[in-house]
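A quick aside before the break. I want you to see a complete sequence-to-structure record at least once, exactly as it would be stored in a machine-readable document. Don't worry about memorizing anything.
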Amino acid sequence: MINRRVAAAVALATLGILVAIFDRLMGTAEADAVPRKPPPIPVEAALASRVDLPLYLDAIGTAQAARTATVTTRVDGQLEKVAFVEGSQVKAGDLLAQIDPAPYRAQLEQAQAKLAQDEAQLENARHDVQRYTTLSPDDYTSKQTLDTARSQVAQFTAETKADRAAIEAARIQLAYTSIVAPFSGRTGLRLVDEGNIVRASDTGGIVVLTELQPIAVMFTVPQAQLPDVSAALATGPLEAIALADGGKTQLDRGTVALIDNRVDPATGTVRLKAIFPNQHQALWPGQFVTIRVVTQILHNVLTAPSSAISQGPKGAFAYVVARDGTVDLRQVTVEREVGGITQIAAGLKEGERVVTNGQYRLQPGDHARVVAG
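That is the input. The structure line, written in tokens, reads:
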């Protein structure tokens, strides 16, 4: 009897355990059958905003010195002194070289002495005319003698004028022995050394002087863009920006100085010149740079980063992230794209967040988590 009761108790306990296990398994299955909500998708986003959007054109240009001069001597003589340092900046009027002035100083003194001699003779001839004029009415001297005296006055007067001209010419020649910079610029390599005999007929010169401040940049634009440039230039100074490293580094800001008066029929382009102050000498003659010319500024237009705009079967679209993180696909109308910024004509509102990175993982209705932007 006792064994039967024990067996019955064991059987009941085993059955309870099996029921508990079954209930647990059924609960787990029901829990697994409930779908889990996926986590938000991380994306980068930026705001659609209204800005002043500059319209510009880019062109490759070559920097050219505003002025270049091969400094030569205008008189013959021995080069006594080279006063400049190669590669240095000089100002207009600075002494660059000195020719031996002694021979030209002697010529000046000789011309001055000749003037003094002729002035003395002129003074004596005037006295003769005065005396003969007094004696002539009383027939104490002949009319021929008086006429001769008057002609001598005219002769010596002309000679003194020639002497003064010779003195001025000698002074000019003496001044030419001091060779000065014709304009402010940067000197190049010295082309002749001290002690050499230099001549006015020499073509090699003493140094090449280059004006770098300001500096010019020549560039070309397609003829199709000429009307925009001309219209912008007609309204006032047209800004030009010199860029390097593929447009990443700004070298200087200047203005467009002129448009060439003809279109090159071989290339269909027109040349333009821009002038830059080049205060930091970032531009150098012969250097290739990118010139950016701002032709127009569109004020208060709606824009978004170009990375937020994608193309689909129905045209351009962007993903917009709502305040609750819900993603909406929005068809947009693109007006233009300028330097990574897209002007939006329709489809977006100011202040809306548009996805700029991570769009490929999104579907309309998804939830997104903005991690940057």
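Two observations worth writing down. The first strand starts at residue 41 and ends at 47. Residues 102-135 form the longest helix (34 residues). We'll return to this after the break.
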